[in-house]
Design goal:
The complex is a heterodimer.
Chain A: H1 3-19, H2 23-31, H3 34-40, H4 42-56, H5 62-70, E1 80-81, E2 93-96, E3 99-107, E4 115-122, E5 125-132, E6 137-140, E7 150-158, E8 164-166, H6 171-203, E9 205-206, E10 209-210, H7 215-241, H8 244-273, H9 280-290, H10 297-311
Parallel strand pairs in A: 1-4, 2-4
Antiparallel strand pairs in A: 2-3, 3-7, 4-5, 5-8, 6-7, 9-10
Chain B: H1 3-16, H2 18-21, H3 31-47, H4 66-78, H5 84-87, H6 89-100, H7 103-115, E1 120-123, E2 139-143, E3 146-157, E4 164-170, E5 181-187, E6 193-198, E7 207-217, E8 222-223, H8 229-240, H9 243-262, H10 270-295, H11 304-325, H12 327-332, H13 336-348, H14 358-369
Helix pairs in contact in B: 1-4, 4-9, 6-7, 6-8, 9-10, 9-11, 10-11, 11-13, 11-14
The chains are: A alpha+beta, B alpha+beta.
Chain lengths: ~325, ~375
């Protein structure tokens, strides 16, 4: 996608994301040809859309499409997609003596689907089962972020009736793209939090001057920008090298960075940021939950450390 | 010369000349050893041509992208052939000469620095002038023979080894702030200069106090115009936060690798190891995009303060991990490897102080990148 096409594409997505959320946003994305762009220009389609969703506090079922596309399933996906359980990136399905045991999450659109794709760990590979949704227990989640529209999915389905489909390329490759998507959404949300706090700091006057003049405030905001830019740098590098390790580092830094942003920006916004009269709380809620999707910053960091300790060597990364 | 071709031929050459390039001294190296090693490596890489790539032809270079320089420093550092801090001074001082010295002076002097014939230093800080650089007071006065310089500098890295110094002086009135500063290129062997090395907590007298008493400097050694010293300093700092920092990132990666191999099983918490690796990953990718902007001819500015915050944070986190994982070595060991870990841990404490403190970097980010106005 060249510069001009990219700008036009980004502008139309921005308009869609700023005016719709949920199902209407799904419909708008379909109209804009986003699923086609996803197949042809995965990097641009994912990075632009998810950063915009993050900054505008919009939600959609685009993540389902991202996974389906990465796994080589039919696109656009007419079935729903079961995501990994909270905090983890393992496949949501597990085979247990003739049954398929399912534990995971889904987007709100899953409630309206007749079937759902459940990726399942098999011997040395992953297979996808198409499970009729009436066989699943679907609990719409309110929780920390009611507007995200998550659904908790569980169930045990007799395997006999289901036909497995081998997925290719592998689940880890699909997880990597999903982690990048989540990383961009976290960065988008963190950038909005920073902008809200920055504007507040410039407008709020105490001791006869805007609080933006106080070093304690300035340094919190500077720290926030550093956290955002370091996540952003690794996200770009991860697209470039395509490795699952880079994607997981990017997701972890974006998750931790967004939590850092929430902490500093909430402190700068002080009283008003604690109320529902201000939009800050929406973003604080969102990043807390997004950090837990496809591996939390905490678990990804620990996994990386354990791998490095076992290998006793650093993989080469980011050559000039 | 493209980066891939350069990488291949340099790596081959380094493999073939491993024994000639290796340090001559055994055991714990002193700063004298490191300086001797640096001069040797610079000479050999200059003679083989590698040190000249990425520098303009008018100063003895062979042209080509600045990425070539970045890779040379990266690989010399990762192979443990040079200490990155002293190696990278070239990256800070040579561009200043190229941008601000007269073409004849730059053409004469820069090759000497690249070839390792000479050591240069950077005279910025003073006893009363740390973070507030614009308050400096080392004075240069016009006389019939040239500038006469009188005053004092401090924290001048490698001054005791230096043949030349890029010196910031006050040529305007006492209250002329950043407008009344002029940069001079001084001969460190001139009469009237006294250098007193300072013993540091990490055990190497890396920097010195420098006293100037009526030191005569010819007018043609002025860098830029009279009163333009602030621009010279401001243009130099992004170099300190780009290529020099890329080399440092390579060094930190190599040390994390060393830690993974040296730490006794069970001593390192996986969560801490993972976090340090992520910080290095972020530093490396951020610094790489800065390298690419530099190579594309972009002018670097305040955004490099983010790179500087990342390197300082990563360096301290890494050596905090070293102090935990190798506690017996760092606290009790008297063998060369322990001495080195201890020295590096102690030196890492300065990462948030030198080259603009962590606080100054955050002030720059707040004012220039977040547009929060001044803090006074």
């Amino acid at each position: 996608m060249d510069g001009e096409d990219r700008d036009v594409f980004a502008r139309s997505l921005r308009h869609a994301v700023e005016t719709h959320s949920g199902e209407p946003l799904d419909a708008a994305l379909l109209d804009l040809g986003w699923p086609d762009a996803l197949a042809e220009h995965t990097h641009e389609a994912v990075s632009i859309l998810f950063e915009l969703e993050g900054s505008a506090h919009a939600s959609s079922s685009a993540l389902d499409q991202v996974l389906a596309c990465s796994l080589g399933l039919e696109a656009p996906l007419s079935a729903g997609f079961v995501l990994p359980p909270l905090g983890r990136w393992c496949p949501p399905g597990e085979l247990d003596s003739g049954s398929l045991v399912i534990r995971g999450l889904g987007s709100a659109s899953l409630l309206a689907r007749e079937t759902a794709v459940v990726v399942t760990q098999a011997v040395n590979t992953e297979v996808a089962f198409l499970v009729p949704t009436p066989e699943l227990i679907l609990r719409p989640v309110r929780g920390m972020d009611p507007e995200l529209g998550l659904v908790e999915v569980s169930g045990t389905v007799a395997k006999g009736a289901l036909r497995p489909e081998v997925v290719s390329p592998s689940w880890p490759a699909a997880v990597a793209v999903a982690q990048l998507a989540m990383g961009h959404e976290l960065v988008g949300a963190a950038r909005t939090m920073l902008e809200l706090a920055r504007r507040h700091a410039l407008e709020r006057v105490q001791f006869g001057q805007p609080i933006s003049g106080f070093q304690a405030v300035r340094h919190r905001l500077a720290e926030t920008l550093v956290a955002i830019e370091s996540a952003d740098a690794v996200l770009s590098a991860a697209w470039e090298d395509g490795s699952p390790t880079s994607a997981s580092v990017a997701k972890a830094l974006a998750g931790r960075g967004a939590r850092t942003a929430a902490r500093h920006c909430q402190q700068v916004l002080a009283g008003i940021g604690f109320t529902t009269e201000h939009e800050f709380h929406l973003y604080a809620r969102r990043v807390l939950v997004l950090d837990e999707l496809f591996g939390s910053s905490r678990s990804l960091t620990r996994e990386l450390g354990a791998e490095l300790l076992a290998a006793r060597r650093l993989p080469p990364f980011a050559p000039l | 010369m493209e980066i891939d071709e350069f990488r291949r031929s340099l790596d081959d050459w380094l493999d073939q000349h491993e024994h000639v390039l290796a340090a001559d001294h055994a055991g714990t190296d002193t700063l004298d050893d490191q300086m001797a090693q640096l001069a040797k490596v610079k000479r050999l890489t200059y003679e083989a041509g590698f040190m000249r790539w990425g520098w303009p032809e008018r100063v003895g270079g062979l042209g080509g992208s600045t990425l070539l320089r970045a890779y040379l420093g990266e690989t010399l550092t990762s192979r443990g052939l040079v200490e990155p801090g002293i190696y990278s001074l070239t990256e800070v001082l040579a561009p200043t000469m190229i941008d601000y010295a007269s073409p004849e002076l730059a053409a004469t002097m820069v090759p000497r620095l690249l070839r390792g014939d000479e050591t240069w230093c950077q005279g910025f800080s003073e006893p009363g002038t740390g973070s507030n650089l614009a308050s400096l007071s080392c004075r240069a006065t016009r006389t019939g023979d040239g500038w006469s310089v009188t005053g004092q500098k401090v924290w001048t890295s490698l001054a005791q080894y230096a043949d030349r110094c890029v010196l910031l002086t006050r040529t305007g009135g006492a209250d002329s702030a950043h407008r009344g500063i002029t940069a001079l290129f001084i001969d460190m062997h001139s009469p009237g200069i006294v250098v007193r090395p300072i013993e540091t907590m990490h055990g190497a007298p890396e920097f010195s106090e420098v006293f100037f008493d009526g030191v005569v400097v010819p007018f043609d050694r002025t860098l830029g115009e009279e009163g333009q010293g602030w621009s010279v300093a401001m243009d130099l700092l992004p170099y300190e936060r780009s290529t020099a920092l890329w080399h440092r990132a390579a060094y930190l990666q190599e040390r994390l690798q060393g830690l993974l191999q040296a730490a006794p099983p069970g001593e390192l918490d996986p969560a801490d190891v993972g976090e340090v690796a992520q910080l290095l990953y972020a530093l490396r990718t951020r610094s790489r995009s800065t390298q690419r902007r530099l190579a594309a001819g972009e002018r670097l500015g305040p955004e490099t303060s983010i790179d500087k915050v990342l390197v300082a944070t990563a360096e301290q986190a890494l050596f905090d991990l070293v102090a935990d994982g190798l506690a017996a070595s760092v606290d009790l060991g008297d063998d060369p490897a322990s001495e080195r870990w201890r020295r590096e841990f102690l030196y890492s404490r300065a990462a948030t102080i030198y080259g603009g403190t962590a606080e100054i970097q955050r002030n720059i980010i707040a004012r220039r990148l977040l547009d929060l106005g001044t803090d006074r």
